[in-house]
Specification:
The chain is mainly α. It contains nine helices and two strands; from the N terminus they run H-E-H-E-H-H-H-H-H-H-H. Among the domains are: about 80 residues, 3-Layer(aba) Sandwich (Peroxisomal Thiolase, Chain A, domain 1), CATH 3.40.47; about 45 residues, no CATH class; about 40 residues.
Amino acid sequence: MLHGRRVAVLGGVRIPFCRQNTAYADVGNLGMSVRTLGALVEKFGLHGQQLGEVAMGAVIKHSSDWNLGREATLSSGLSALTPGITLQRACGTSLDSIITIGNKIATGQIEAGKVKAFAVTSSKRLTTPALKNLPTLDEAGLKGFNVNIWHGVYAPKGTPKAVTDRLNTALRAALKDPDFISAGRVADAITDPDKTSTIGQLIGEGAYYGMQTFDAHLVALIRDGIISLEAAMSASTSPHDLTVELRRLGLVA
């Protein structure tokens, strides 16, 4: 890049090499990522700091590691407002991570104040310091817009109720812990531990597929001429389904 700003590697840490299926066999990708990133935070005194972005990955990942970069960031000691992305390339994940972050710094994409937020998708305003003054999309004019993400804690089928009740009680206590809340782990989250018997109903009702609600609003934005078709396709979680719906409504050929 001819005119980009200069980028420097300031330092690093690593965990020791070891043979496959030995010392790290029970740690997993997330465990190793948290240890490495946490050590980096300690080395450079970054505890509680909000960084521009964290990029991490692994060559071979379990399906549960789909959000490895973000999950490791949340457990690293960095501010929970630090974004994290997950990359994967055979024998080149670390190199691509450096290149990706380096390019974002060089082009100015990662720089405070460069991204302007207009609204939040929840039904209520957030209390997170960086977002507390943002209106909801409902307040901004998109009446009825409410897109949230929910997570459930699962146990194997047939787990005794006494066990699930004990887990439920422990989780409720943890989610109310002041230190946990102050660390930003559950900022603005609404905990509903009583959903243990109705989570299947939520999935059946389509709450799991939040993209349906989101794309429905994209259709409305296109219909009202607020955004272009190209912008909607870029934002859509399912461009194919969005196209089918637009054709059904006669909005595209």
